[in-house]
Amino acid sequence: MSTYLGMPAFPEAAAVSTRDTRLRGNLRHATHTIRAKRAAAVAEMADWQQLRAAGAAAKDDTLRHLDTYLEQLETAVTTAGGTVHWAADAEEANRIVAGLVRATGETEVVKVKSMATQEIGLNEALEAEGIRAYETDLAELIVQLGDDLPSHILVPAIHRNRGEIRDIFTGEMAAWGRPAPEGLSDRPAELAEAARLHLREKFLRAKVGISGANFMVAETGTLVVLESEGNGRMCLTLPETLISVVGIEKVVPTWRDLEVFMQLLPRSSTAERMNPYTTMWTGTTDGDGPRDFHLVLLDNGRTDTLADQVGRQALRCIRCSACLNVCPVYERAGGHAYGSPYPGPIGAILTPQLRGTASALDASLPYASSLCGACYEVCPVAIDIPEVLVHLRQRVVEGGTYTVRGTRTVIRPAKGHAAERAAMRAARWTFQRPRALGAVQRLATRTRRIQPRRLPVGPGKAWGLTRDLPAVPEKSFREWWQERGKGAGE
Question: What is the DSSP annotation of 71-130?
């Protein structure tokens, strides 16, 4: 499978993807369909806003005491017969998983759809160790067979239409196992049956399964996976060894907290009242399910994100993808332009925090938004994505990541952006002095006929290429108010 390494900054990638008319057609049809169904499912819940607030509060409380709940989770998982591993970054997580698979003597694994394993590039790391990972989610299978990249959190192959999927199946399935049936059409039922037959032999043969988890319940050490096809259930129950790679923010304190998210997630993601397949497991049980269970708790930038009082909102995310389906930027640019397993609005705030803003790609993501606010309106845990986007834009302008020193958050300023900072200082000086502001306004109105509509040269050229300058009115508000007062006899 391809990787996101070396991808260009968002504006450059989006300039290419927005010209792909077939891609835009696929995205428009899919996102509009999903958003309409979600809106209908949410409208059935009279207490939706209360549920939303409860989910946000539960997540915030958990994040404030994350260390306590993670230690509680570790104790519960260990008591139930599982083994817990801690991974500070992607490299360590990949090394742990590869070592666990090698210890079984196996060279193949089956995988449940997992954002965390995409984030760390686990498939590629296993391949480098001579271990082949088979994706079993239908959309992930399409992406893997097509040597492609996921472009959506919920529907990774949303950028493909049925004809393209048929061509991928007929051309590539044989190289990965059972070939596609002869005369395969693009009917959804036939495509699903071809995938089912192809995957069944892998389910029955695999000795090692790899998953993520939607939630982890600290009080019992229970892991929870929600999915719609049943492939996850096969991966989680049939293998002898199960390895779950989960971000540390996925923990919830109690089953009572879990109940809130079990209502929020299905309606926000697949527009269903109840999730079709919900698999829960606690450690190991003799004669039932895997004999060995390993939980790899992944940090990979999450602790740094947690230290940011504004940006930590992103760690509330339950990966429903509702924000992608309403985002006008995502709909036109597609998921690949974000250069991350996390595309769309949530990716624009999560990726720069997990990876930092040192690269041109990551520094461009906070600007991949019109700040329309639609993402915040649909987020089931009330993440104020526009607020975080603006916050991260400040980080990019200031030129560096946040450094926490005790209780203070310190920004290391950038050497560049001198012109912008000088302009802001001048504006501040002017706004603090009414007479100076009045003089500037009078000058602007007197010269309005000769003022350009754009900034063609100088530091504002890049900004001006895509924006017209606002028209200057004939008189300032202050002048208008003074004239109005005189006319009214005041």
Answer: HHHHHHHHHTT-EEEEESSHHHHHHHHHHHHHHHT-SEEEE---HHHHHTTHHHHHHHTT
Match 């835009």 to its residue by tokens: 24
- Using CA atoms, how far residue 173 sits from 144, 164, 219, 374, in Å, is 10, 14, 43, 39
Q: What is the pTM of this model?
A: 0.84
Same domain, yes or no, for 125 and 269? yes
pLDDT digits (tens, 9 = 90+) for 38-74: 999 999 999 999 999 999 999 999 999 999 999 999 9
Give yes or no: residues 293 and 424 share one domain: no
3-state class (DSSP) for residue 282:
strand
- Whether the CB-CB separation of 110 and 209 falls below 8 Å is answered with yes
Domain limits for position 473: 418-487
Segment 228-250, tens digit of pLDDT: 999 999 999 999 999 999 999 99
Of 302, 322, 342, which one is at a domain's C-terminal end?
302
Among 243, 273, 302, residue at a domain's last position: 302
408, 392 Cβ separation under 8 angstroms:
no
Domain membership of residue 175 (yes or no) is: yes
**Element containing residue 427 per DSSP (H, E):** helix 418-431
Q: Are residues 282 and 144 in the same domain?
A: yes
Let me know if residue 340 belongs to a domain.
Answer: no
Q: pLDDT digits over 303-361, tens only?
A: 999 999 999 999 999 999 999 999 999 999 999 999 999 999 999 999 999 999 988 89
- Phi/psi of residue 453, each to 5°? -85, -20
CA separation for the pair 50, 169 (Å, rounded): 44
Considering the domain architecture, whether residues 171 and 24 belong to the same structural domain is answered as yes
Q: Does 460 reside within a domain?
A: yes
Residues 6+ apart with CB under 8 A from 118: 150, 341
Kindly report, residue by residue over 18-30, the tens digit of the pLDDT: 999 999 999 999 9
Which pLDDT band, with edges at 50, 70 and 90, does 459 fall under? low
CA distance linking residue 253 with residue 30, whole number of Å: 35
Closest CA to 176 of 133, 208, 215, 217: 133
490: which residues sit within 8 A by CB, 6+ positions away? none
Measuring CA to CA, which residue among 211, 208, 215, 214 is closest to residue 232? 211
Q: What's the total number of domains in the chain?
A: 2
313 in any annotated domain: no
Nearest CA-CA partner of 60 in 224, 212, 249: 249
CATH of residue 224's domain is 3.40.50.10420
Provide the sign of the torsion angle of the four alpha carbons 239, 241, 247, 251, taken in this order. Answer: positive
